[in-house]
């Protein structure tokens, strides 16, 4: 079981969500965040905007689905460059994947580890 | 050290807060999030009698590993049956010692259980260290 934190452009989030839903990944959490990358935001004239609004998606998936989900997010969240097709642009976002040791569904008190498997240090 | 991420109903936050206080949890971060679960965040009656299985998508996905991204698994309900699924929820982030994880999870489950879909989920992730910004204290002592 692993957790994906994907930071994407807000205008692309619905596109990504729809693409994930189409392949059966429907459980996710969405957060509005602000931040900047290695370019320290955008500078327009003398003003630097370092807190650029982004959307963050959090998904927990079994190990076997992670590569698939990352592929979907990275292809759908990419902006389209006319002169350089296939390459996105600065600010398209990032995807982080972390371990999840345990996961519980509150309604059933069920430990999803039994179903999805754990991928912590004890793997 | 572990990070506990709990996603719960908005209306249960105050109850959860006081119950966590009772078992001695001091540091909690609350986030406003929107989310949906395996059933698109809908009530229990919506899919009764339908072929939809909450985990059905997983099996489909395994077969679709090399298939094009747009492949449409049959286990999903028809488009018209579904609603925009994202509903406001609250995310709690608690960083705790390994030994405190079990009581915290038990409290969270006991407080937030209603038996309906949308009760939320709890995830436990490994955490390497914590640092107190005020004095640079590191490790377990930075938590209390």
Described by its quaternary structure, the protein is: heterodimer
Order of helices and strands of chain B: EHEHEHE
Q: Estimate what percentage of residues of chain B fall within beta strands.
A: 15-25%
Helix count of chain A equals: 3
* Sheet/helix structural class of chain A: alpha+beta
Distance from N terminus to C terminus of chain B (CA atoms, Å) equals 12 Å
Fraction of residues in H or I helices of chain B: 10-25%
Mean pLDDT of chain A: 87
Radius of gyration of chain B: 19 Å
Number of strands of chain A: 8
Q: What is the β-strand count of chain B?
A: 4
What's this, in brief?
The complex is a heterodimer of chains A (123) and B (144). Helix content of chain A is 25%, strand content 36%.
Can you describe this structure?
The complex is a heterodimer of chains A (123) and B (144). Chain A has 3 helices and 8 strands. Chain A has 123 residues and is of the alpha+beta class. The radius of gyration of chain A is 17 Å and the shape is elongated. Chain A starts with a strand and ends in a 7-residue tail after the last helix. By secondary structure, chain B is α+β, with helices and mostly antiparallel strands. In chain B, 21% of the residues lie in helices and 22% in strands. The two termini of chain B are 12 Å apart.
């Amino acid at each position: 079981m692993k957790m994906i934190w994907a930071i994407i452009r807000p205008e692309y989030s619905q596109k990504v969500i729809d693409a994930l839903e189409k392949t059966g990944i429907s459980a996710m959490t969405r957060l509005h965040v602000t931040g900047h990358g290695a370019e320290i935001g955008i500078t327009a004239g003398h003003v630097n905007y370092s807190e650029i609004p982004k959307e963050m998606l959090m998904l927990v998936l079994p190990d076997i689905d992670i590569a698939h989900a990352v592929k979907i997010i990275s292809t759908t969240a990419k902006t389209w460059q006319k002169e350089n097709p296939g390459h996105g642009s600065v600010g398209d976002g990032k995807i982080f994947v972390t371990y999840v040791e345990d996961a519980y569904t509150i309604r059933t008190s069920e430990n999803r580890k039994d179903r999805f498997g754990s991928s912590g240090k004890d793997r | 050290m572990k990070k506990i991420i709990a996603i719960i109903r908005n209306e249960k936050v105050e109850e959860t807060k006081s119950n966590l206080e009772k078992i001695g949890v001091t540091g909690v971060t609350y986030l406003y999030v929107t989310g949906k679960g395996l059933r698109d965040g809908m009530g229990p009656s919506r899919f009764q009698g339908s072929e939809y299985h909450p985990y059905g998508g997983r099996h489909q996905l395994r077969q679709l590993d090399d298939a094009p991204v747009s492949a449409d698994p049959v286990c999903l309900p028809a488009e018209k049956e579904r609603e925009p699924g994202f509903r406001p929820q609250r995310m709690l982030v608690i960083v705790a010692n390994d030994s405190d994880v079990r009581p915290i999870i038990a409290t969270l489950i006991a407080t937030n259980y209603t038996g309906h879909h949308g009760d939320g989920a709890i995830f436990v992730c490994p955490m390497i260290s914590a640092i107190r910004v005020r004095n640079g204290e590191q490790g377990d002592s930075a938590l209390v």
